[in-house]
Task: inverse folding
């Protein structure tokens, strides 16, 4: 049986169109036309993926994500008519795995669904299958007094805890594990948002800005360096 996808879209014609295309591809589908229904269905149904419009009646898509919580196992792809980078960043920070801007080609949506299902499989227990508890490498990365503990999902400076969102954490980890190697915006985008992510690379700059405001500026250091025209690097010395 194919993956079951919840389509949340208040434009009913568009919802039906997506549903027909998904059924044609062999997916099971369900629909919700407002945020409240979406939230109820997402909390109770066993979906493999949720397509979630941001602009919805009653409760908007971002609020639906907030109420579902970050630990909700079902991957979400946001559908957005808006072009504001901050909206997308807010959606990704709230835990969405991808977003697609309307209007979109159905082939592009289908491609992103395939990628999201592959990268974020939901097991029967509701725990992502790709989290591997048997992996017991030393998952602690350091730079000067900064310490990133991957297992504890914890970042500290001289023992003082720094609160990061998931994506800020991933970006910092990528930079820390590749010290002295300049990471291009494309590479960072791929690591943080997934390899099939098609979007503006300035999302990367937004996350770097967040990281600097939470670390460099607070502790008065210059950890993340800009390499003009290329990307970013953390230098080891
Ligand atoms: Ca809408």
Result:
């Amino acid at each position: 049986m194919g993956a079951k996808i919840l389509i949340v879209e208040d434009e009913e014609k568009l919802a039906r169109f997506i549903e027909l295309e998904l059924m044609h591809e062999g997916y099971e589908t369900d629909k919700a036309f407002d945020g409240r229904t979406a939230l109820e269905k997402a909390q109770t149904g066993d979906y493999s993926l949720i397509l979630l419009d941001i602009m919805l009646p009653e409760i908007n898509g971002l609020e639906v994500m907030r109420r579902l919580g970050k630990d909700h196992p079902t991957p979400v792809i946001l559908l957005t008519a808006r072009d504001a980078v901050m909206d997308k960043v807010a959606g990704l920070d709230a835990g969405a795995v991808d977003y697609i801007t309307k209007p979109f080609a159905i082939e592009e949506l289908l491609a992103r669904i395939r990628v999201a299902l592959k990268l974020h499989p939901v097991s029967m227990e509701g725990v992502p299958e790709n989290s591997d508890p048997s992996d017991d490498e030393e998952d602690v990365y350091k730079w000067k007094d900064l310490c990133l503990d991957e297992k504890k999902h914890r970042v500290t400076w001289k023992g003082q805890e720094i609160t990061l969102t998931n994506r800020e954490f991933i970006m910092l980890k990528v930079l820390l594990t590749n010290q002295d190697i300049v990471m291009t915006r494309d590479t960072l985008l791929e690591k943080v948002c997934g390899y099939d992510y098609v979007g503006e690379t300035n999302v990367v700059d937004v996350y770097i800005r967040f990281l600097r405001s939470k670390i460099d500026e607070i502790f008065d250091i210059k950890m993340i360096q800009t390499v003009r025209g290329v990307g970013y690097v953390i230098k080891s010395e």
Notes: The first strand starts at residue 4 and ends at 8. The first helix runs from residue 12 to 24. Confidence is low (pLDDT under 50) at residues 124-136. The pocket of calcium ion is lined by residues 10-11, 53, 55-56 (CB under 6 Å).
